[in-house]
TrEMBL record:
Keywords: Membrane, Transmembrane, Transmembrane helix. The keyword Transmembrane applies. This is Uncharacterized protein. The chain crosses the membrane at residues 6-24, 33-50.
Length: 276
């Protein structure tokens, strides 16, 4: 429907010019040309003014039209989504089902903070339910590669603010306004997640509690700077810590995990995927 509007506009202009030509027979060529030109401008302007209302009307009433608009804008911002949608048609179907009611209800611009948070929450829900359960069984290399992007992503959020860094570290949801560095980091993680999904094997199991505990204990010894007793106490009450403290502790933790041997690193990141 979006692509038809220019065609309809052009047809409208053509009909207007034809009607002017029909009703001005017998007048001079110059006069007919001027009248035709004025008619074309007037009709073209009318269609241009009406287009937003036409598109809003169509957006409210046609799911296919509305999704074509939303999908196009999302992919323009993050082309990796094409690879994500190609993994399983159910991913796009679920995302469409979650996003369209939000966009229609709030009717805000995509830069509106409330809209961004609602969209990010819906998208995160789709990824947790449709993508992560498969990606968590990816190869050790692929799962570890996905996890290795965590530090770069948190650092990107920290360039926005400590609050943005802490919020993403604690929730995994992007609630910031569009930001080139953040968007690039998140796209890189999505590419890694696609690779983990494609390498999925039912034989790749979650680690046991003992294995996971040993991996975290090993990571603790690799932290830079080393974790002190006050840091460990802060982890036990992390949600109540100041935002800057949350950001710093999570950066140090994931930096330590990145220094682990592959199998231990994959064990931790596999569990993080499973827990959403």
């Amino acid at each position: 429907m979006q692509s038809l509007y220019p065609v309809i506009s052009a047809l409208g202009v053509g009909v207007a010019v034809a009607l002017v030509a029909q009703f001005t027979k017998g007048r001079s060529v110059t006069r007919r040309f001027v009248l035709g030109f004025v008619a074309a401008l007037a009709v073209g302007a009318g269609f241009a003014v009406a287009r937003p209302q036409f598109e809003l009307f169509a957006f409210e009433r046609s799911d296919d039209y509305a999704w074509s608009i939303v999908r196009g804008r999302m992919i323009a911002q993050d082309p990796v989504l094409l690879d994500v949608f190609a993994l399983d048609p159910a991913i796009e179907t679920d995302l469409r089902k979650g996003l369209l009611p939000i966009l229609r209800e709030q009717r805000g611009g995509m830069n509106d903070p409330a809209m961004l948070q609602a969209v990010a929450k819906a998208a995160a829900s789709t990824f947790r339910s449709k993508v992560m359960p498969v990606a968590q069984r990816g190869s050790d290399d692929a799962v570890a590669a996905w996890g290795d992007g965590t530090v770069a992503t948190l650092l990107a959020f920290r360039t926005v603010s400590d609050e943005a860094c802490a919020d993403y570290a604690m929730t995994g949801v992007n609630r910031t306004s569009p930001n080139l560095r953040v968007d690039a980091a998140l796209s890189a993680r999505q590419r890694a997640m696609v690779a983990a999904y494609k390498s999925s094997d039912p034989g790749n199991k979650l680690p046991s509690g003992e294995e996971l505990g040993a991996a975290y204990e090993h990571a603790r010894t690799l932290a830079q700077p080393p974790f002190e007793e006050a840091d460990m106490a802060a982890f036990r009450d992390l949600k109540d810590q100041p935002k800057a403290r949350q950001c710093d502790l999570m950066l140090r933790l994931f930096g330590a995990i990145d220094r682990l041997p592959l199998r231990e690193k994959a064990a931790i990141y596999r569990t993080i995927m499973a827990n959403g």
